[in-house]
Amino acid sequence: MMPFLTAIVLAGFVAYAGSWYFGMIEGNFALLLFLATVVTGLYWLAERFIFLPRRRAAAKTLEGQDESRRAKLAAQGIQDADGDVSTARERIMAQPWWLDWTAGLFPVILIVFLLRSFVFEPFKIPSGSMIPTLLIGDLILVNKFTYGLKLPVLNTRITQGNPIQSGDVVVFRYPPKPSVDYIKRVIGVPGDEVSYLNKKLTINGKPVVQTPGSDFFDESMMKYYQYFDEQLGVKKHGIIVDETRSAFVSGVDDFKFKQNCRYSVEGVSCKVPEGHYFVMGDNRDNSADSRYWGFVPDGNVVGKAFLVWMNFSDLKRIGAFN
């Protein structure tokens, strides 16, 4: 019964993962990992309190029967009785495959679940919207506790962390499609008046300092762009601007609190509502961000990106970033 039931459970996980991989469904990795933790945990408990004691009892019975047989033979004067039950005992004590693939994996899955849910989560940069700060192919780590811990799957905040600040690079669930993760830089926090007009950033009426640097060559586009050091808060970061692109924001979606934004041929100005953030990519003219699809709710924020831990095309990319 248990081997058949386990085969069905494992087939269900494989079917879900396969359907997600081939685009047949929108997968939820956090939910999948949570279910895997629960299922393997139940098997682990059953192994510890039911199946393992049964196997130990069976092994003890076997040993008792062997001792009884040897005692009877000894009473008849036979001291060197043949037969070794050690191999049979090992077979009795061995975990069957359906426990090895469930209870045996539970400790590893639990550690991954806890680390991913409450400590760090890895992501891969799929696009060039954060160039020059992050390049396509960068593998980054996101701090899950800086802004406060959240319950996995439910995304309910359970601790108060540091407030999200202007200039932070955050990973968040894309508001129009929460199953997709995005990464951008926070430009405006609740209450800020953010203006990006003629490719110049102003926050609460104060121009953000931009210091021009050498032109930046984007290898993904094989093109040079204007480079600036921009300062939001206490730290500087790089941005690039395409001087051939218009400042006009075209193709704007309908989104919640759109009435807080004013669009013109010069760009856009927005008042950031409470509990939301205005985000933009450092690749200012090649980034689908808050200018197009609106504000990021606080509940959508996954964590703060802070480290490139690997880039297989360029190992020099490894390290922290602003």
Automatic annotation (TrEMBL):
Main localization, broad class: membrane
Gene Ontology MF terms in the entry: signal peptidase activity
Its membrane topology: Single-pass type II membrane protein
Signal peptide: none
Major enzyme class: hydrolase
CDD domains xref list: S26_SPase_I
Name of protein: Signal peptidase I
Cell membrane listed as a keyword: no
Catalyzed chemical reaction(s): Cleavage of hydrophobic, N-terminal signal or leader sequences from secreted and periplasmic proteins
Peptidase S26 domain boundaries: 99-309
Gene3D superfamilies, per the entry: Umud Fragment, subunit A
Organism from which the protein derives: Ottowia thiooxydans
Keyword annotations of the record: Hydrolase, Membrane, Protease, Transmembrane, Transmembrane helix
NCBIfam families: sigpep_I_bact
One matching Pfam family: Peptidase_S26
InterPro entries: LexA/Signal_pep-like_sf, Pept_S26A_signal_pept_1, Pept_S26A_signal_pept_1_CS, Pept_S26A_signal_pept_1_Lys-AS, Pept_S26A_signal_pept_1_Ser-AS, Peptidase_S26
Transmembrane segments: 27-46, 98-119
Source lineage: Bacteria, Pseudomonadati, Pseudomonadota, Betaproteobacteria, Burkholderiales
Statement: the UniProt record of this protein carries the keyword Protease: yes
Protein family (similarity comment): Belongs to the peptidase S26 family.
Compartments in which it is found: Membrane
EC number assigned by the record: 3.4.21.89
Domain of life where this protein originates: Bacteria
